[in-house]
From TrEMBL:
Pathway: Isoprenoid biosynthesis; isopentenyl diphosphate biosynthesis via mevalonate pathway; isopentenyl diphosphate from (R)-mevalonate: step 3/3. Pfam families: MDD_C, MVD-like_N. Keywords: ATP-binding, Lipid biosynthesis, Lipid metabolism, Lyase, Nucleotide-binding, Steroid biosynthesis, Steroid metabolism, Sterol biosynthesis, Sterol metabolism. Residues 195-353 form the Mvd1 C-terminal domain. This is Diphosphomevalonate decarboxylase. It comes from Somion occarium. The keyword Lipid biosynthesis applies. Belongs to the diphosphomevalonate decarboxylase family. Its EC number is 4.1.1.33.
Length: 353
């Protein structure tokens, strides 16, 4: 008897141009395009195994060993349904193919980092889920096509289908068929950029991205300005910076966009605060570090960015990492760099998964 099983893994990605706001909550269509870097080491990954078997009674999923409910019409169910739909197309074209789309699937996923650490586990999780199902079903689908499905699990997940530098183009079609991830450049194009992750707090975040976005879309006038007048130009400029490996521009845009995302959160009614005092102190440190460099005739040496939580991600060329870590350890003496990969700091190369 044949065993139909496949395993795939996907890494976390960290946005430089932030996705914040949905124009369609069911299809997960964003109010602006976004751009991220996919982290390329083994520390921050989700790995998922999917199995199809005629003896299975229903689709089931385990996350880190705990069974999760697959709610009807929910995001997990939507992703599974969409991948099965593509499998059915394969079976219709090739009648000799086993009818795997009619079997239930069992899916086991694990993160090799603490799910509660405030890092984007849903991005790697849904990307790995869709990739493993696509492998199980031997789908002839490109990463961009699969990103259309991962997007419906968690918006940012669509970007984890690629390594390196990745854009999520918002698209304009009401059915979402052009709201997908594309590769801007592979990791090998600019391998020198590293990400330093500073876990400021591993508390679960106060306002989920789903409810935060909804409230921002409903109440923030700054968001309207951002999506119309700021992000389109920034997307162009940061792509250009990546293509010519211009860290100065890449860093400026990344920091500006993090700042504006948090300004938009503050402009939400009631306001949302994702950063805390330690987050802000890390910003001050990086600003000062860059100021001293520029004053001495140098360039920007590091860029901070923050998602929907207090943890800092610092992008920097490899040559500056040691200096940045020693500065952080000096000003945050409680920091314990490299004690373990999930400790306070982890240096991550960025790039392909
Ligand atoms: O995909 P979600 O729903 O987890 O939202 C992610 C939102 C941010 O991380 C704040 C920004 C981004 O583009 O990843």
């Amino acid at each position: 008897m044949s065993v139909y099983q496949a395993t795939a893994s996907a890494p976390v990605n960290i946005a430089c141009i932030k996705y914040w706001g949905k124009r369609d909550t069911k299809l997960i269509l964003p109010t602006n395009s976004s751009l991220s870097v996919t982290l390329d080491q083994d520390h921050l990954r989700s790995t998922t195994t999917s199995r199809a078997d005629p003896s299975f009674e229903k689709d089931r999923l385990w996350l880190n060993g705990q069974e999760e409910e697959i709610k009807e019409g929910g995001r997990l169910a939507t992703c599974i349904k969409e991948v099965k739909r593509l499998r059915r197309e394969v079976e219709e074209k090739n009648p000799n193919e086993p009818k795997l789309s009619t079997y239930a699937v069992h899916i086991a996923s694990k993160n090799n980092f603490p799910t509660a650490a405030g890092l984007a586990s849903s991005a790697s999780g849904f990307a790995a889920l869709v990739s493993s199902l696509a492998a199980l079903y031997a789908l002839p689908a490109s990463p961009s096509q699969l990103s259309l499905i991962a997007r419906q699990g968690s918006g940012s997940a669509c970007r984890s289908l690629f390594g390196g530098y990745v854009a999520w183009e918002m698209g304009s079609s009401p059915d979402g068929s052009d709201s997908l991830a594309i590769e801007v450049a592979p990791q090998s194009h600019w391998p020198d950029i590293h990400a330093l992750i500073c876990v400021v707090s591993d508390d679960k975040k106060g306002t989920s991205s789903t409810s935060g976005m909804q409230r921002t879309v409903e109440t923030s006038t700054l968001l309207q300005h951002r999506i119309k007048h700021v992000v389109p130009e920034r997307m162009k400029a940061i792509k250009e910076a990546i293509l010519v490996r211009d860290f100065d521009s890449f860093a400026r845009i990344t920091m500006q966009d993090s700042n504006q995302f948090h300004a938009v959160a503050l402009d939400t009614d009631p306001p949302i605060f994702y950063m805390n005092d330690v987050s802000r102190s890390i910003i001050a440190l990086i600003v000062e570090y860059n100021r001293v460099s520029i004053e001495n005739g140098g360039k920007i040496k590091a860029a901070y960015t923050y998602d929907a939580g207090p943890n800092a991600v610092i992008y920097a060329p490899k040559e500056n990492l040691k200096e940045i870590i020693s500065l952080i350890v000096k000003y945050f003496p409680q920091a314990e760099p490299f004690k373990d990969p999930f400790g306070l700091f982890g240096a991550q190369g960025v790039g392909s998964g």
